[in-house]
Amino acid sequence: MAESSDVLSFCNYDEFSGLIARLGKATAISEDGFAFHCDAPFAAIRYETYRLFGFIDLELREMQPRTNIDFHYELGSNYFEIGYVAEGSFHLMTEKYSDCVICPAHLYITPRSGSQGKITYYKNRPLRTLSFSAHRTDAEVTSEVFGESGGRLWAEAAMTGKWVERDLYPLTTPPPDVITSLLHAANCNYPYRTRRLFFENIFREVLLRLIAHDLPDSETSSGMDRFEVERIKSVPGMLMAHISHPPSIAELSRELSINATKLQCGFKKIFGKSIYACHRDACLERAARMLLDTDKSVFEIALDAGYSGSGNFCNAFKKRYGVSPSQYRLKGLSLHTLGLS
């Protein structure tokens, strides 16, 4: 652990969790769950955890950092996690994927091949998250929850699906019904003795809905082959490489040797939104990260995010995050009080 005037750094998550475990207190709330509270100089933390199906850990966490906190992590290929941000934000940097700010309603799933990087929690930015995790592969999790047929469905969806293939990490636009299920879990007010059964049902719902959104359907198939899929996945990078003057659909079509109509339909099937809606969100995520990580002015960040001025940028940012860029930087997202002292 390293400490400076503005950040508390941990070599890994185990070091971080070990410290809060020593400083906090755990209380059994049912035969399969316990609550934990830690009121430390660097953060106030509360969470509940439950063991589902005998091998999946559900954790509902609330945290109020009192300084910037970061830790490095490394996930093996046999680690499975679905996480959801109910309130607040944190910064995720990965070795393989683009770094970004994880905001409310963001869903993240561990990469299929494992991942390593760094997570940063920011001072005075309350955070409320929910996560399901297991030291099992995708196939093992789905097979044990749904049986052998469920494992086959997950594998079939993974061949073309944007959620379970996980070339996108995190998943910033999960299906609305998935969000609904996760919000039900995050705001559960059932008696403690009944919560494990409730959470197991929620986990089944989430997995099933992610699978259902991505199962190939002969009536709606885009007809893309693997080469076209890989070419289309390169579009976000091409747009960000020319952020101020992104190429047109016609230019992308010529560069990728893909018909413009198939390009647009295929992109929406893979990424869940249109090409330029996806690009706009990526630009705003870059801006959100810069607001937290740099001292640049809002105007400078607007230019760096591909906007010609601060007016349009501020309007787009507020529509995306619910607050102005200045409010986001100074006060964080407008959150409900978590009750942490």
Describe the protein's architecture and organization.
Helix content is 42%, strand content 24%. The protein has 13 helices and 13 strands. With 341 residues, it is of the alpha+beta class. Residues 217-221 and 332-341 have low confidence and may be disordered. Helix 4 packs antiparallel against helix 5 and helix 7 crosses helix 10 (275-293). The longest helix is centred in the middle third of the chain and has 23 residues, at 192-214. It is globular, with a radius of gyration of 21 Å. The protein has three domains: 2-214, Jelly Rolls, CATH 2.60.120.10; 226-272; 277-331, Arc Repressor Mutant, subunit A.
Shape: globular
Q: Could you give the order of strands across the largest sheet?
A: 3-4-5-6-13-8-11
**Rounded average pLDDT:** 81
Taking the sheet with the most strands, its summary is: 7 strands, antiparallel
- Computed over alpha carbons, the radius of gyration is 21 Å
Number of domains: 3
CATH homolog superfamily of the largest domain: Jelly Rolls
Portion in helices: 40-55%
Terminal residue distance: 24 Å
Q: Strand tally, please? A: 13
Contiguous runs where pLDDT drops below 50 for at least 5 residues: 217-221, 332-341
Q: What is the CATH fold-level name of the largest domain?
A: Jelly Rolls
- Class inferred from helices and paired strands: alpha+beta
Reading the helices and strands in chain order gives EEHEEEEEEEEEEEHHHHHHHHHHHH
CATH arch. level architecture of the largest domain: Sandwich
The CATH class assignment of the largest domain is Mainly Beta
